[in-house]
Structures are given as C-alpha cells and as structure tokens.
C-alpha cells in the first residue's frame, strides 16, 4: 500500500508541476487559438529574471517572482504589439514556423547573455526542506506548487467566466469581427490575454525550476511536455488542462515506480488513447 | 654562371631544409562548438591551447596549428565527413577531441587507413580503442572508475547496494561494471533501476532506492539538469538521513558543482580527476588555464585535452614533426608522464590511459567554494572494461 500512496502523492505533485508550466500555453493556444511554440521562451525569460533578482540582487523570493512575471508580461505585450499580432490571421504553419524560430533566437540570446550554465533559483527558508506526510516526506517547495496551481485555476476561472474581460475574450475569439463592431476593443483584449499567458509562463518557469532547471535549452526541452498537456486537456479549457496534467502526472509517476524500463511509453500511450477517445479534450464528449 | 648556380643550389637547399625545420604540425580538433554541448568545445580548446602555450607554441621546434571542426551533438555521419576533410584537404597530422562515443567510432576506419594518430579527449566507452590501432585515449572509461568503487564498497562492509542509472549506453555500462565487480566479491545488488532519459521528477526513483533496503546507491547521470534533479530528490526524500550512501562517478563534475550548493555536501564519487588535486602538475595546469582564458575551468574535459596535447607533443618529438603515424603511435605506447591528475601511463596494449582513481567527497574548500576533496587513492587502474 505505501507503493500506491506514493504513486498518488508523487503523481499529483508532478501533475501540478506539469499544470503550472503548461497553463500559460493553455491560455495563449487554447483561449486565443494562437499556436505559440515560444511559450517556453517566456517561461525562461521570467525564470532568468527571477534568478537574477533573487540570487544576484538579494530580492525576496515572492518579490522576485512577481517582478519576473511582470517582466515577462511587459515583454510579451511589447512583442505582441509589434510582432505577434500580425500572426493571428496567418496560417497555423506560419505561426508554428515563426514561434519556433523565435524560440531558437531566445535560446541563442540566453546562451550569449548568461552562458550554457544552469541558473539556480535559491529557495527562501520557508520553502526549503521537507515536511512529513504520514510515513513519507514531501519537499515543501512541491506543496507550494500544488497550492499555487489551485490558486491559478481559481483565478483564471473567475477571470474567464465571471468578469467582463472574460466575456470580451470569449467573444473576440469566437467572432472577432462581430465583437469589434459591438464596441469591444479586441486589440486590447488580445494583447492583455497574450501578456497574461506570458506571465503564467514565467510563474511556471520559476515554480517548475526544481524539476525543470532553467538553462538555455529550456524552451525546447519541455515544449513537447507542455503541448501534450494542453492538447489532452482540450483547447481553451483550464479545468481540462488541470485534469490532463494530473492524469498524465500520475501515469508517468506510476510507470517510474512500476515499469521504468519502458521509458515514457505509458505517458505517450495515455496521450494517444485520450486523444483518440476524447479528441476535443479530456472533459469534453 | 657557375657561382650563380651553386648559389642558387645553396639557396634552394637552405630553403628546403628551412622548410623542413619549420614544418608546421596540424592538429584537427573535432568537438561540439554549437548546440547544447558547446561548453565541451570550449573546455577542449582551452585545455589544448593552454598546453601548447606552456611549450611556447612549439613541439620539438615545430609550430602547432589547430583546425577546429564543430560536431554538434552525437553525429557520426557529420563527424566522419569532418574527419575526412581534415585528413584529405587540410592534411592534418593528428586528430583530437571527441566527446561522444558514436562520433569516435565513426572515424575509426578513416584513421586506420590514413594512419592518423587520434587522441580521444573524452568519449568513455571501453570498446573504442580496439576499433583502430591509431586511437589513444587521455580520458577515462566508466569501468576504470567504477570497478575500484565497487571494491571499496565491498571493503567498507556494504552488503546491499542498489544501482540507479540513466537508461542509455554509458549508464548501462556503469551499471554492468558495478554489478559485475560487486557481485563477484559477494555483495548483493538489490535492485537495478534504469531511469528514462527524459526523467525530470526523480522523487519516484529516490523512493524506490529508499524502499529497496540498500545501504548505498551506485548512481550514473549525465551532466546538467538530471544531475541536479536527482541530487535534490536524494536530499528531499530523506535518503541522506536514512544513511544511504551516494556513490557516483562524474556527477560532481566541476562544471556544475557550484550549482548544487549545500545539497551536494558529503556526496562521494570515484573519479580520475579533481580540480582540487594537490600536486605541482595540477597547480601548473591551473596557472596555464588561467592565462589561457579568465573563464576557463579545470575539469575532466579540459584536463583530457591538456593531457591529449601532451601525448601529441610526445609523438611530434618521436617523429620530428614528420608525418609517420605508425612511428608516432609506437612512441606513445608505454609513455609515462606526470599529469595534473597524478602519474599517468599509456597502456601499450589498449592505448588507454592507466591512471590513479580517487574516492572524493564534496566539501567546502578554503575559499568557501565546493570542491571534490580526494579522501582515498585507489592506485593505478587500467581500463577494466577491456581485461
């Protein structure tokens, strides 16, 4: 039985890490229908800024994270205004080509500015060490990730379903022309949504850094993982992304406990199965 | 007329012999200079050039010219083409470099046919050197550093050990080396865990190690993120408190070492080179590297390149800078020298380096930085993978 509880605990925690690194992509790709393969680059940019502020400048962890998110959002907003907005109407292939090219440029920039080294993010006192959980221990940092993940779900749900901004967003995605003629400033909505996605990317980059350390190849290395979670979760569904992340996290963890010789077979098998049975997302029929 | 002719002949003779004296020795270095492994290229370049500078740029009176070729990552096809160009077009006298085993394997037929002595600065699979008579290796093999570690574990009275390696060729090599030696000595390997290459959450593996009832864990991980992730999982899942000893090889490499912070303190590895090795040769190496580049780094890759050039130096001396691969390789067999890592010798049979292997423990040095302190010398070790 400790085996089963271990799988569930580690699986849920790992799933939450998957969620937190993917949720930003779920916003840009899911809610905006923009194939944003440079999601990881915004996560890395945020992570690097956080590392710089916390490690080199002596900022507190919380302040570093908030400033890193703001930085990523500002960067994304500027890039959206001048570059990315021109891609919304282009074909999906062009979006893919542009954003992956942008990702390569970001990798080279990170390499040039900070070298090929891993950027460490020092954890504050209250996030260090482990806490006892029954007969086993759990790193405190992971507990923070779980709560941060739940918090993000709640906030996003409120934002999309309960605010005027959410109505504008859903309207402009469904029918941009009509929304525009009804007086919705879709440019502002698009720009803000893209920035929110980037901010969440930065949050994921920082909180996920314990498992996915920040280094120049970060945006490429974990891209497949992020895409799988968002695809299985279903485009535009935050709760679907959460369910997919948890489900895949548990599957992957179980295979690490029980059948690690098979590599990632079960993770991808689960993905194929879910996409075959529920092509529109795990929570949709 | 006659005088003129003699003069001309003398001039020609002087020119020819002058040419012979000033023969430039060309060394082609194949290593990653771009992509995720580009730091290896820099380490090799610094190590190799630092050595040449200690000799004032000349080996036995001959200028040394480096020609660098980028291999990217594991890329046997591209590396074979690069080696061919170096040998045929650039007419290099020696080849060096090679981070990855498949890349080294790919050039074996070429160097065999062209009789080009080739020094492997890193690639660490035992089976490479037998592939051509012109391979020499200045790095190490996993068997070389793992077998004495297994013997030490046995002598320390450890009965049950678990192996946890990353699931790819070098990891499996390490697992086999430890398993074979430890079982032969009467120990028990209670679980053989192979971790998929893409693993980022190592908690499940840490829990499995804990549950296996082992007293120690033999670990093999490639450098970079997996290494950091595993060491964090080792600490956070209470393996340290449970007293399960961490026994590794290249995990505490100086390239990543400072990134671990306190998490690495006390971890033990068995390896052939530590930047903290206490010897004049190592201090000389440190000085040469510092002069070469301010951001240079002492680790197994840069010392592999530095010693690799020491070997080429010896071969250039033996052939007086002429292209004679057979003579050069004969001269290197049994060659002994004082390396920054300690006394070293090229085994005449395998053309692999015989060297001391040390047990090291991560500690804070006098400058407050983490270092691998050598706590035990296992003595000279051959490549146990080829015995």
Automatic annotation (TrEMBL), chain A:
GO terms for cellular component: plasma membrane. It comes from the Bacteria. Its main location: membrane. It is a multi-pass membrane protein. One of its GO terms (molecular function) is transmembrane transporter activity. Belongs to the binding-protein-dependent transport system permease family. LivHM subfamily. This is Amino acid/amide ABC transporter membrane protein 1 (HAAT family). It comes from Pusillimonas noertemannii.
TrEMBL record, chain B:
GO terms for biological process: amino acid transport. Residues 24-365 form the Leucine-binding protein domain. The lineage of its organism: Bacteria, Pseudomonadati, Pseudomonadota, Betaproteobacteria, Burkholderiales. InterPro entries: BCAA_transport (IPR051010), Leu-bd (IPR028081), Leu_Ile_Val-bd (IPR000709), Peripla_BP_I (IPR028082). The keyword Transmembrane helix does not apply. Keywords: Amino-acid transport, Signal, Transport. This is Amino acid/amide ABC transporter substrate-binding protein (HAAT family). Residues 1-22 form the signal peptide. Pfam families: Peripla_BP_6. The keyword Transport applies. Gene3D superfamilies: 3.40.50.2300. It comes from Pusillimonas noertemannii. Belongs to the leucine-binding protein family.
């Amino acid at each position: 039985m400790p085996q089963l509880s271990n799988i569930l605990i580690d699986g849920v925690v790992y799933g939450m890490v998957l969620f937190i690194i993917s949720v930003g992509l779920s916003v840009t790709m899911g809610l905006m229908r923009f194939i944003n393969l440079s999601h990881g680059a915004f996560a890395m940019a945020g992570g690097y800024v956080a590392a710089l502020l916390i490690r080199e400048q002596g900022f507190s962890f919380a302040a570093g994270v908030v400033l890193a998110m703001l930085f990523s959002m500002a960067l994304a907003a500027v890039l959206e205004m001048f570059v990315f907005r021109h891609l919304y109407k282009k074909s999906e292939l062009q979006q893919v080509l542009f954003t992956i090219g942008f990702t390569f440029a970001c990798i080279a920039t990170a390499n040039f500015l900070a070298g090929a080294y891993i950027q460490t993010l020092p954890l504050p006192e209250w996030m260090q060490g482990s806490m006892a959980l029954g007969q086993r221990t759990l790193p405190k940092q992971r507990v923070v990730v779980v709560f941060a993940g739940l918090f993000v779900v709640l906030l996003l749900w409120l934002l999309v379903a309960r605010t005027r901004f959410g109505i504008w967003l859903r309207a402009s995605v469904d029918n941009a022309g009509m929304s525009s003629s009804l007086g919705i400033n879709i440019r502002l909505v698009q720009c803000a949504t893209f920035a929110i996605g980037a901010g969440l990317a930065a949050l994921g980059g920082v909180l996920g850094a314990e498992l996915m350390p920040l280094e120049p190849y970060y945006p490429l290395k974990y891209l497949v993982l992020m895409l799988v979670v968002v695809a299985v979760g279903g485009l535009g569904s935050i709760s679907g992304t959460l369910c997919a992340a948890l489900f895949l996290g548990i599957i992957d963890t179980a295979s690490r406990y029980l059948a690690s010789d098979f590599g990632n077979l079960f993770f991808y098998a689960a993905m194929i199965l879910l996409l075959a049975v529920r092509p529109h997302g795990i929570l949709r029929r | 007329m006659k005088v003129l002719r003699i003069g001309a002949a003398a001039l020609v003779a002087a020119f020819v012999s002058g040419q012979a004296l000033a023969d430039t020795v060309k060394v082609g270095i194949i290593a990653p200079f771009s992509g995720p492994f580009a730091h290896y290229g820099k380490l090799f370049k610094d190590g190799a050039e630092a050595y040449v500078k200690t000799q004032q740029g000349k080996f036995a009176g001959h200028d040394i010219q480096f020609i660098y070729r980028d291999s990217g990552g594991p890329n046997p096809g591209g590396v074979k083409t690069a080696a061919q160009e170096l040998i045929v077009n650039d007419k290099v006298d020696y080849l060096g470099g090679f981070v990855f085993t498949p890349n080294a394997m790919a050039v074996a037929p070429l160097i065999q046919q062209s009789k080009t002595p080739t020094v492997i600065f890193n690639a660490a699979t035992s089976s490479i050197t037998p592939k051509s008579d012109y391979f020499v290796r200045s790095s190490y093999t996993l068997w070389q550093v793992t077998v004495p570690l297994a013997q030490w574990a046995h002598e320390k009275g450890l009965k049950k050990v678990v192996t946890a390696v990353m699931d790819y060729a070098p990891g499996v090599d390490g697992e086999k080396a430890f398993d074979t030696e430890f079982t032969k000595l009467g120990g028990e390997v209670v679980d053989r865990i192979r971790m998929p290459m893409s693993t980022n959450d190592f908690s499940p593996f840490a829990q499995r190690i804990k549950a296996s009832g082992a007293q120690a864990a033999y670990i093999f991980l490639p450098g970079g993120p997996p290494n950091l992730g595993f060491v964090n999982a080792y600490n956070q899942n209470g393996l340290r408190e449970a007293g399960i000893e961490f026994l590794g090889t290249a995990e505490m490499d100086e390239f990543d070492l400072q990134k671990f912070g306190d998490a690495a303190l006390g971890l033990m590895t068995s390896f052939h080179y530590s930047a903290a090795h206490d010897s004049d040769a190592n201090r000389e190496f440190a000085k040469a590297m510092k002069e070469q580049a301010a951001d240079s780094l002492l680790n197994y890759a840069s010392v592999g390149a530095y010693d690799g050039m020491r070997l080429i130096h010896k071969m250039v001396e033996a052939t007086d800078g002429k292209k004679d691969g057979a003579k050069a390789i004969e001269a290197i067999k049994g060659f002994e020298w004082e390396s920054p890592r300690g006394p070293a010798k090229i085994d005449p049979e395998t053309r692999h380096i015989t060297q001391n292997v040390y047990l090291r423990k991560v500690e804070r040095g006098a400058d407050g930085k983490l270092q691998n302190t050598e706590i035990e010398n296992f003595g000279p070790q051959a490549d146990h993978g080829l015995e």
